[in-house]
Amino acid sequence: MSCMQRRIMQKKIVLLFVFFLIVLPLSFSFAADDVLIQQGIAQYKAENYEEALELLLKARETSPSSSLVAYYLGLTYKNLEKHKEAKTQFLAALNLTPPVQDAYTELIETLYILGEQDAARQWLKKAEQSGVKPAHIAFLNGLVLVKEGRYDDAVASFNEAKALDASLSQPADLQIALAHIKMRRYDDAKKSLRTISVMDPTTDIAAFAQGYERALEKTPGASNRWQLTVGLAYQYDDNVLLKPTQSIPGVAITDEGDSSIVATLGVVTPTLVSGKWSVTGRYNFYDNTHSTLHSHDIFSQSVSIDPAYSLGKGALSFPLSYSHVWLHNQQYLGLLAFRPTLQLMLAPGHIIQASAGYAKQNMFQQVVDPDEARDADIYTVSAGYIHPFNQSRNVFNLMYEFGKMETDGRNWANTGHRVIAGLLLPFFRDDLKLVLSGDFFYQDYDNINTIFGGKRLDRIYTGLANLRWEINKTVSANFQYSHTTADSTISIYDYNRNIVTVGMELQF
Questions:
Q1: CA 61/CA 64 separation, integer angstroms
Q2: How many Å apart are CA 469 and CA 467, to the nearest integer?
Q3: Which residue among 19, 135, 477, 494 is least crowded, i.e. fewest CB within 10 A of its CB?
Q4: SS3 content of the chain, % helix, strand, coil (to 5)
């Protein structure tokens, strides 16, 4: 072998050595990265999201150009409810080469959750142009249109999703029902809910739809037909006369307890709808006739009209009502009230309510002492929180109200603070509903009482438990117990009271 040949051979050996020195570690590195990615994906599919996150973050550092890693990292963040981080990864999965087509729907849904409507709309257009999952894109488009308040367009989009993919029929019908409710088309909403139940009654979504339909049936005004409610009950009140807790010298009050028959009637008109506006009318009748203490028989009638404006995530209503009360067949009280109310859903299962009201109270009975005159202007403001949970089978509510009553007579003008808390829950079975509520009323009277010579301050505590048995869609039975304790700085207004009521109610 010549010298020249030996030199060429030596160069080849050196180049081969360099090749192995560089390429082999790279190949081992790529293999290690691939193992890391596969392990991360496997942990994600096993729903071990924390472990998947750790592995995929490492894979993202070592393979920053991998769209697949970005996609699965986005899915992991989404399942951990870290939506901002998920958004970043889905964007990367679509911008890297090759783009992951499934990331379109995941990104749009994430933007929808984050409330970034404009961005969601832009990516919807890109997904439509790319022809990616047209049924799912139509469904997501419907969700975005609902948030934009374009309910008719949303219904059309959900129907398109159903036509393209039968597996989306149930969730699409549920969204269609909710869109109809937003538009106050309650009968159309019930049809969609019924369709879900018939399609496959064994699914969770069908059970939810059935519960929602039952709740909608009982929602006043949620119908395009007249609604009639008739009730009859037996009641026992152990302190009809509000006998004071402490005995009063020279005054003997006996036989303060009595039973009575309570009859009620309620009529709700069909809901008139025009765009986002709706109007519902109501009439209520109440009669409480005692066995012996007829001086305390009560008969009342009230009418109301309730215009409302839909806000997408809530409603603004303007109820106007008038009530007329008779006591022992004599005119007793007339009350005209106007109470604008705002109700908003901040998030699913979290509703706030606020109102401001004015009422004019007219007492028909003549008074001898002008200081005892109770004709009044009443001003109120209130704020409340409503939390339906457990698929709306349970409801918790909390309300605070401030009231100012300006009466013609000095002795009855007062300022009041009221707190009410309530809880509705199934009682062993879905057709038995238990309502528990507590009410605290702090009433501070403005002036020294001219009859008793002291300043009156009342603290009134009321607890109530009501068990309602929904026998069927028409017939319900009610069992109710309430206790009231009134504690006043003027002892004549101290009392304890227990009321037990058992009755039936028919709804048509």
A1: 6
A2: 7
A3: 19
A4: 40, 40, 20
Are residues 199 and 256 located together in one domain of the fold?
no
When divided into structural domains, the chain yields a total of 2
> Of the candidates 114, 169, 177, 109, which has an alpha carbon nearest to the alpha carbon of residue 143?
109
Residue range 420-438, pLDDT digits in tens: 999 988 888 878 889 999 9
Q: What is the DSSP letter of 251?
A: B
Structure tokens at 290: 């005692």
pLDDT tens per residue across span 184-216: 676 677 677 666 655 555 555 555 565 555 555
Going from the C-alpha of 283 to that of each of 61, 184, 220, 286, 321, the distances in angstroms are: 69, 21, 12, 10, 10
Asked if residue 157 lies in contact with residue 145, where contact means CB atoms within 8 angstroms, the answer is yes
pLDDT digits (tens, 9 = 90+) for 16-38: 444 444 443 433 333 445 777 78
- 3 pLDDT above the threshold of 60: no
The answer to whether the CB of 503 falls within 8 A of the CB of 243 is: no
- Asked if residues 324 and 333 have their Cβ atoms less than 8 Å apart, the reply is yes
- Is the predicted pLDDT of residue 242 greater than 90, yes or no? no
Angle at the Cα of 76 (from 73 to 82), degrees rounded to 5? 100
Task: Find the CATH number of the domain harbouring 115.
Answer: 1.25.40.10
Contacts of 231 (CB under 8 A, 6+ apart): 262, 263, 264, 265, 478, 503, 504, 505, 506
User: How far apart are alpha carbons 269 and 79 in whole angstroms?
Assistant: 46
Q: Indicate the pTM of the whole model.
A: 0.63
Q: For residue 336, what are the β-bridge partners? A: 322, 360
For 133, other C-beta atoms within 10 Å of its C-beta total 17
Average pLDDT over residues 350-373: 92
- In order, the DSSP letters of 209-249 are HHHHHHHHHTSTT-SSS-EEEEEEEEEEETTTT---SS-BT
Closest C-alpha among 379, 382, 381 to residue 404:
379
Q: What is d(CA 24, CA 258) in angstroms, rounded to the nearest whole number?
A: 98
Pairing status of strand 350-363 against strand 341-347: antiparallel
Residues 302, 286: Cα–Cα separation, whole Å: 9
482 phi/psi in degrees, rounded to 5: -135, 145
Grade residue 378 by pLDDT with cuts at 50, 70 and 90: very high
Q: What is the CATH number of the domain that holds 309?
A: 2.40.160.10
Which domain, by its residues, includes 146? 10-217
Query: Poorest-confidence range of 104-118, 142-156, 213-227?
Result: 213-227
Q: Which two tokens stand for residue 476?
A: 């319900």
Q: 87-91, 94-98, 107-111, 173-177: which range is least confident on average?
A: 173-177
Tell me which of 185, 217, 249 is where a domain ends. Answer: 217
